[in-house]
């Protein structure tokens, strides 16, 4: 269960990171207040994920953190690609 | 101008051929510099291990294994330094200096 | 020609990456499979029942000792591996020059399973670290390629460093073809960079001695008593002479194992190695990140305690960590799967790199023999290798279970398929029909991969209701591979028409 939380935390961080990029903002405009929140989340979620990983298994925590992070990043990148493709095809 | 009238074909062909030769020379130069960087990086890695052998003795297997791990990490980094920094003209010199420094350390070590 | 840092690094990245990448892709693919080498061996030996508790009984240990003595009488350096969570059976193994093979025993009553002869997952392990060329030549090549990979990764970082942060997860699969491939290369490269550096570096360090110049201390080391690594028991090349192998029947192993556990404060012991007058019991190495070599030595004649070797200290722990990180013998299934998926991603990274190299040069050098050779070899690597792997699994199911020299027949099927694929790729590339070759081979791969579960069902080699997770998992993965091959083949077909 903790692994799932770590995965979700990483996914949220990657999502926030991509939403903050200018190329994504063109397709999905972002309010200034939200921008600040996303910037905060982008930093906080991976730290939280690291704490969870170290709590789960102190010795192998870093391996879980990197592994789940990479997978979450891959999942979000594919999801974002599909969303952008769908959005760009809308009239 | 009269040359151009007499040999209309040779003028555009000449720079192309020269460019090709220049390009080939540039590639040869890169390969030579990469090879030099590889030799120097390899020597430096060897001297790192020898440093541990001289310091800790031949029987200290674990220390030598750790030194080999350090040398393995240093090998690609030094190679990148030697080859990459050549854009600025000092990559190989730095690598040569490093290699000489470690070799000198090994020589003066009692 | 512009002489900028990026141009230099780009040249280095492309050429070293492509030339080393042709072999490294195979090394990574087989290494990824080796994460589950025991599970693959179990899939390939369906006669072995795995529903037993992973604690051996005294009777089973006695049978194992008898089997070991019988094997040693045949001049084989046999040793015993005890049951574990991943492999709950007793194995009496010996090294045949490539793999560790041998009889499989029930941990309860010690009876010998009528398991088919197969290289199993060990085949991929051997290919991964030695390219089936032995511990001298093969390991040296793989270690040198590891250095090349570190160099390629370093130059890749130098090229991409500025765009790395903003393009962290940028992937445009619906864009133009080179763009999509480049994004796939970059996104896997950036996201799995820590894993890639860690696994390449630790893999290179394991056999670093092979590539560094010989030192004066080497004879002193070879003269010392070799302490073998837990999973590669007798250090290859250090196997004792045949005359010294056979010794007396060892005393009951159960009490010795308990004593060893007590001395080493270990949960379990994993490996028992027998010399002519000694028994060495090693602790298990799946409980932690550190791959330990702690062992307790007993007398083979009467079982009295001789010595123990429990290594401590920062340097030893560093070496154990470097080895443990690479061998990945963790008991945690999640971590094994993370290693497997990361390995797959790195294989995709290298595969996409090979494709990009060809795409970039097709217009200017498409008619050159060197380019055509490169394309043929790339087809052989990217399609031929998975085809050969699926072929090996087909052979495992279709060859008669008790065929003589069965293991070598399986391996021959693997290499014959791979060679055919590479030859077909080369011939087509020279005839300028490489694109149709990609489609044909991918369709063939899809057929072979999607057909494997059917063959698995039709051969009735095992049951599907009880203790069948290993079959479902491997078959599902193979189906996935087949579907991916089919999708790519259809995309290529649409693109061509």
TrEMBL record, chain C:
The keyword DNA-binding does not apply. The keyword Transmembrane helix applies. Keywords: Membrane, Transmembrane, Transmembrane helix. Residues 228-249 are annotated as: Disordered. The chain crosses the membrane at residues 12-36, 135-159, 180-201, 337-358, 379-399, 411-430, 442-459, 471-489. Pfam families: PepSY_TM (PF03929). InterPro entries: PepSY-ass_TM. Coiled coil: none annotated. PANTHER family: IRON-REGULATED INNER MEMBRANE PROTEIN-RELATED, PEPSY DOMAIN-CONTAINING PROTEIN. This is Membrane protein. It comes from Acetobacter tropicalis.
């Amino acid at each position: 269960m903790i692994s799932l939380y770590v995965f979700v935390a990483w996914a949220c961080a990657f999502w926030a990171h991509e939403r903050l990029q200018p190329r994504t903002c063109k397709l999905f405009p972002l309010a200034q207040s939200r921008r600040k929140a996303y910037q905060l989340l982008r930093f906080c979620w991976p730290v939280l994920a690291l704490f969870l990983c170290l709590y789960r298994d102190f010795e192998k925590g870093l391996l879980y953190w990197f592994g789940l992070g990479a997978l979450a990043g891959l999942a979000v990148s594919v999801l974002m690609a599909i969303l952008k493709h769908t959005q760009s095809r809308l009239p | 101008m009269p040359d151009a009238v007499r040999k209309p074909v040779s003028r555009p062909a000449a720079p192309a051929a020269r460019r090709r030769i220049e390009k080939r020379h540039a590639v040869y130069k890169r390969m030579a510099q990469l090879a030099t960087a590889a030799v120097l990086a390899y020597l430096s890695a060897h001297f790192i291990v020898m440093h541990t052998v001289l310091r800790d003795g031949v029987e200290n297997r674990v220390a030598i294994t750790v030194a080999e791990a350090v040398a393995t990490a240093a090998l690609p980094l030094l190679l990148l330094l030697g080859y990459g920094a050549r854009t600025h003209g000092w990559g190989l010199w730095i690598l040569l200096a490093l290699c000489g420094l470690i070799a000198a350390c090994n020589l003066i070590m009692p | 020609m512009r002489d900028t840092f990026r141009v230099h690094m780009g040249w280095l990245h492309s050429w070293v990456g492509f030339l080393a990448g042709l072999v490294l892709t195979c090394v990574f693919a087989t290494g990824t499979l080796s994460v589950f080498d025991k599970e693959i061996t179990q899939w390939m030996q369906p006669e072995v029942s795995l529903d037993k508790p992973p604690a051996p009984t005294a009777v089973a240990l006695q049978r194992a000792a008898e089997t070991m003595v019988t094997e040693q009488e045949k001049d084989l350096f046999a040793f015993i591996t005890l049951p574990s969570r991943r492999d709950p059976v007793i194995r009496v193994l010996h090294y045949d020059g490539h793999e560790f093979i041998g009889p499989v025993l029930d941990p309860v009553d010690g009876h010998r399973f009528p398991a088919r002869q197969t290289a199993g997952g060990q085949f991929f392990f051997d290919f991964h670290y030695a390219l089936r060329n032995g511990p001298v030549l093969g390991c040296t090549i793989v270690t040198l390629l590891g250095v090349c990979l570190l160099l390629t990764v370093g130059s890749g970082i130098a090229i991409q460093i500025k765009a790395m942060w903003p393009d962290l997860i940028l992937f445009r699969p619906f864009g133009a073809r080179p763009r999509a491939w480049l994004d796939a290369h970059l996104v896997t490269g950036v996201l799995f960079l820590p894993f890639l550096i860690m696994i390449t570096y630790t893999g290179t360090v394991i056999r670093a001695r092979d590539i560094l110049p010989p030192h004066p201390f080497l004879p002193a080391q070879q003269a010392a008593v070799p302490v073998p690594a837990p999973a590669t028991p007798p250090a290859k090349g250090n196997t004792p002479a045949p005359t010294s192998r056979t010794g007396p029947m060892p005393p009951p192993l159960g009490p010795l194992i308990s004593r060893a556990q007590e001395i080493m404060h270990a949960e379990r012991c994993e490996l028992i190695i027998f010399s002519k007058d000694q028994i060495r019991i090693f602790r298990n190495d799946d409980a932690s990140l550190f791959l330990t070599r702690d062992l307790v030595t007993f007398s083979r004649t009467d079982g009295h305690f001789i010595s123990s070797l429990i290594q401590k200290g920062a340097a030893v722990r560093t070496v154990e960590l470097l080895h443990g990180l690479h061998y990945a013998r963790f008991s945690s299934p999640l971590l094994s799967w993370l290693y497997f998926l990361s390995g797959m991603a790195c294989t995709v990274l290298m595969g996409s790199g090979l494709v990009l190299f060809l795409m970039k040069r097709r217009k200017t050098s498409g008619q050159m023999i060197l380019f055509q050779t490169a394309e043929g070899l790339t087809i052989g690597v990217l399609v031929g290798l998975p085809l050969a792997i699926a072929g090996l699994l087909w052979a495992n199911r279709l060859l008669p279970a008790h065929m003589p020299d069965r293991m070598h027949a399986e391996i021959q099927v693997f290499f014959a398929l791979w060679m055919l694929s590479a030859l077909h790729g080369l011939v087509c590339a020279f005839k300028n029909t490489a694109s149709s070759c990609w489609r044909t081979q991918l369709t063939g791969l899809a057929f072979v991969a999607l057909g494997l579960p059917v063959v698995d069902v039709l051969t009735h080699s095992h049951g599907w209701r009880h203790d069948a997770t290993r079959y479902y998992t491997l078959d599902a993965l193979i189906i996935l591979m087949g579907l991916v091959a089919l999708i790519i083949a259809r995309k290529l077909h649409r693109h061509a028409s």
